[in-house]
Amino acid sequence: MINDIREDEVFFEEYLTSFCGRLTAKSLEISYEKPMPYTKHGVKFHNNLKAIHHLLELSEEKEVISNQEIIETAALVNGPESFLSKGFRKTYVEVNEANWYPVEANQIYSRMYSLLDCYHNIWSELEDVFEREAMFNINFIKIHPFEDGNGRTGRILLANNLIKNNMAPVVITKEEKDEYFSYITNDDYQGFAKFLKQRSMEEKAIIDQLYKENMNKKQR
User: What is the mean pLDDT of each run of 10 residues along the chain (220 residues)?
Assistant: First the structure.
């Protein structure tokens, strides 16, 4: 699926840029009630694209992602302009509109270590890639390991993991925000897995159309 188009490096880079643009716009709509100024939107897009490239390059080098690499990804998402210190948060945070609480700061490292252990050594036995990713994303968001950028970092990790598993990445929209948070609140792994599978299929249709248009241009 995705592996086929990745062989066309020029097209894949064009697609990745397009995907990141849509991912950034929709993620900001989920995270912020008011529209973000165009200049700040551009900065967020640049940061997200760097983070996606960083993860994809890592995925080619190693099978297992570590806490340190997730920290590096979050630092790229938040960008050099961020006043936040790099690393897991050391303070308490609240999540707007959530009726659950992130873990205490002193529990983050152990919870993230446990999450990655489950992801790589237990959930890897699952036949359904989307269920594995649903479990990882929901638990990651509930841990909320960073002071800022948890949602964006989580969705970029999700995109990378799906691409790595030869699946189309997904874009979650503002209109799907309530549904998305319902899956998180209720630890509804199977429901979220079905949601991700459907959105991945929709993204695959977009990829196929873009690739077809790209091939037609080359033949002219």
Answer: 86 95 88 63 91 93 90 94 86 85 96 97 94 98 95 96 96 94 96 98 94 81
- Put simply, whether the predicted model's pTM sits higher than 0.90 gets the answer yes
DSSP annotation string for the chain: -HHHHHTSHHHHHHHHHHHHHHHHHHHHHHH-SSPPPHHHHHHHHHHHHHHHHHHHHHHHH-S---HHHHHHHHHHHH-TT--SPSSS--S----TT-SS-PPPGGGHHHHHHHHHHHHHHTGGG-S-HHHHHHHHHHHHHHH--SSS-HHHHHHHHHHHHHHHTT-------GGGHHHHHHHHHTT-HHHHHHHHHHHHHHHHHHHHHHHHHHHHHHH-
Q: Which CATH number applies to 2-219?
A: 1.10.3290.10
